[in-house]
Amino acid sequence: MTVIVVANPKGGVGKSTLSTNLAGYFAAQGEWVALADLDRQQSSHAWLDLRPATLPAIESWQVDLDNPAKPPKGLEHAVIDTPAGLHGNRLQAIIELADKVIVPLQPSMFDILATQDFLNRLAKEKAVRKGAIQVGVVGMRVDARTRSAEQLQRFVEGLELPVLGYLRDTQNYVQLAAHGLTLWDVAKSRVEKDLDQWQSIIGWMDGKPADK
């Protein structure tokens, strides 16, 4: 079983978008996956309520922030969507559950600065340094050809963490989420550009090394 934590203490960076689409990918592969939502707003779990019963199933996993427990036995994947402002002992407890941590980050200097301490802390975690927990960054709402993307790449390289990929700014995610859908629940031709951008992220999830 693999536990993926999607985390960034800053709000509005795309954690729920990443979490729901990750869970949707695993479900589309026929794997048993559960989605945990630690945010008080419960956006990801509300999204699950919208998901048509005819689509590949994604289970809801309830996690107590003050006493987190391992996922139910038999799960192949668990995705944890974390809230803004998560820090201290609660953050530490969630990170200890993880096999992989994905940090969504927008390529503005304000977002980078707001996330810098968190990424520094992750990079220094003993389990990360020893490779027991893998950490990667995903650039959100960004064109990989822009200076902003280059700026993000340089910043993350300094931490020796890989950029797993860049997801463009598109209404596809918004429109699909409104119906409980992911990229893998609609015709490929409708979201082909977005699926292409996910290939490097999926490769890393499947154990392929990411470029640093």
List the defining traits of the structure above.
Rossmann fold, 17% strand, globular, alpha/beta, 212 residues, seven-stranded parallel sheet, CobQ/CobB/MinD/ParA_Nub-bd_dom
Summarize the SSE layout with pairings.
Layout: E1 2-6, H1 15-28, E2 33-37, H2 43-50, E3 59-61, E4 77-81, H3 88-95, E5 100-105, H4 109-124, H5 126-129, E6 134-140, H6 147-158, E7 163-167, H7 171-177, H8 192-205
Parallel strand pairs: 1-4, 1-5, 2-3, 2-4, 5-6, 6-7
Describe this structure in words.
This is AAA family ATPase. InterPro entries: CobQ/CobB/MinD/ParA_Nub-bd_dom, DNA_Partitioning_ATPase, P-loop_NTPase. Pfam families: CbiA (PF01656). The protein is an alpha/beta fold and 212 residues long. The chain has one domain: P-loop containing nucleotide triphosphate hydrolases (Rossmann fold, 3-Layer(aba) Sandwich), CATH 3.40.50. It is 39% helix and 17% strand. It has eight helices and seven strands. The protein has a seven-stranded parallel beta sheet, with helices on both faces. The chain is globular and about 45 Å long. The mean pLDDT is 89.
- Described by the principal axes of the CA atoms, the overall outline is globular
Number of strands: 7
CATH topology: Rossmann fold
Strand numbers in spatial order across the main sheet: 3-2-4-1-5-6-7
Give the biggest sheet.
7 strands, parallel
Query: Structural class per helix/strand content?
Result: alpha/beta
Low-confidence stretches are none
Task: Kindly provide the name of the CATH class.
Answer: Alpha Beta
Run of helices and strands: EHEHEEHEHHEHEHH
Counting DSSP H or I runs of 4 or more residues, the number of helices is: 8
Q: What would CATH call the homologous superfamily?
A: P-loop containing nucleotide triphosphate hydrolases
Overall number of domains: 1
Approximate strand percentage: 15-25%
InterPro entries: CobQ/CobB/MinD/ParA_Nub-bd_dom, DNA_Partitioning_ATPase, P-loop_NTPase
Protein name: AAA family ATPase
Pfam families: CbiA
Domain CobQ/CobB/MinD/ParA nucleotide binding: 4-182
